[in-house]
Amino acid sequence: MLCAHWSRLRRVSSRSCCATALRSTHSSTRLSSSPERIMKTFCSVWLLLSVVELSPAQEPPLPETAEDMASTGDLEPTHYPARRAAQVALHYLNTRHGSPFRVFGLQQVHKASAEDVEAGGRKYKLDFSVTDWASGSAGPALRCSADVLFPRTERHSAPDVKLRCEALQQINRTVQEEEAFYQKHIPPDSAVSARDIPDSYGNMSEEMQPFWRLARVAASFIMLRESSENTEFNMVQMASVTQQESSEEQLMLEFVVLLHDLPSQEIVQWKLLASWSPDRGVRVLQTEWQPRCPHATKPPN
Q1: Which long-range contacts (CB under 8 A, 24 or more apart) does 57-64 make?
Q2: Looking at the whole model, is its pTM more than 0.90?
């Protein structure tokens, strides 16, 4: 579904960039230079012309209210607070069990509750199900439960997740596929380089699917770290992948990924260096937030 909506998300990205520029210029009492005036005028026109085309990247849950965000006890599973917390648990699951041939997606939130904790923060208790995207619609649903704690501190802190999934070890491992993929791409003369996966029409070749899954798993480390009660991240595109030389018998891959935050409709870009091998799994070695707007100076969180 994400691939099918990628063309819409590209338009959202441009508007988000302009919105960021407008907020920056509007907050100043005087515009310091002619280029800033030009940028403000351009963005104003762009927003007015494009607002009629704006549509959500995916069917959203029911709108949240102030009561939703402040409520404790049982939560409505279809509302944003429950879904956001479940999405964080999903990122955690992918960082632990994702591979070139396995990446999980959120299927449904069944039950959710929230409570304020004395140490400062809010803890969500969740019952939800996920599916393995690599298996397609034929893959079995996996039932999971999780405790997700969002700390409330002056500086952003990553959520703390405790996750339990039924029958996780019974899911068929892709040992032979992983080993064949590793042996094919570990030689230096087989280095891979590609851009825009999927493309603007949602197309992705079969050869690129394992690399897309690796990018999705690696991006989960960033999405987990950057998540808060006010975000809901998903990866919408592997903008580029470039295989790097490695002396550690690991596939070393440099990714540029585009992450979509559903509540704000913003798309943020990150560059990351990740390694993978069948025995050591996915490791993220370096991350770098890349602003797509000239006025942006720091990541959203």
Answers
A1: 57/2, 57/5, 57/8, 57/9, 57/12, 57/236, 57/260, 57/262, 57/265, 58/1, 58/2, 58/5, 58/262, 60/262
A2: no
